Amino acid sequence: MPRHDCPGGGADDTAQGEVGATSWTAALDQPVPDDVARLLATVPEWFGQPDSNAEYIDAARSKETWTVRDAGGSVVGVTLVDRHFPHVAEIHLTVVDRAAHGSGVGTAMLAAIEADAISRGVRLLEVKTLGPSHPDTGYARTRHFYGKWGFLPLEETDLWGEATPCLIMVKPLAPVP
Q1: Most CB atoms closer than 10 Å: which of 18, 22, 43, 75?
Q2: C-alpha–C-alpha distance, residues 65 and 73, integer Å
């Protein structure tokens, strides 16, 4: 299967990212709920609520799963995707092992998911994250990451409750000519 270099392009279901001497490949994979549980535990400042984590682990049993694996085959990043309508793909969860933060794992996954979405005729990517009215600096980094990828803030809601503002971000995708 052909690959492409991050940060995007192409229309297949793998992507390769390179940061320094590390090269990452993201691919559509089988469900990996145990890996999701392990990865969530490496970043408790993002994923520190046991009930939410249990929901993510349960979702990892059935949702479309994209992974990045290291040279030994261990999962270092996972993204779960929902497809509510043929024209929309939602990033339900992205989690990267703390040891791999900043190395291009998230970029490789997002590039692969976007390329796959475009090839399927998806016109809009969506992600929900903690809104900017909450002072959490980690999620400010998350919003910055998605913003660099072209996601635009659409709406901040109380979908998750007043104490947890939900920011809905979207990215329009150009159709394949």
Answers
A1: 75
A2: 16
Rounded Cα distance, 33 and 26, in Å: 17
Torsions phi, psi of 60, nearest 5?
Answer: -70, -10
| Cβ 84 vs Cβ 125: under 8 Å | no
Token pair for 107:
């970029």
Which pLDDT tens digit goes with each residue over 75-125?
A: 999 999 999 999 999 999 999 999 999 999 999 999 999 999 999 999 999
Give the residue carrying structure tokens 């991050």: 6
Neighbours of 46 (CB within 10 A): 19
CA dihedral 103, 72, 95, 22 (to 10 degrees): 10
What is the predicted pLDDT for the residue at 111?
95
Q: Reply yes or no on whether the pLDDT at 7 is more than 50.
A: no
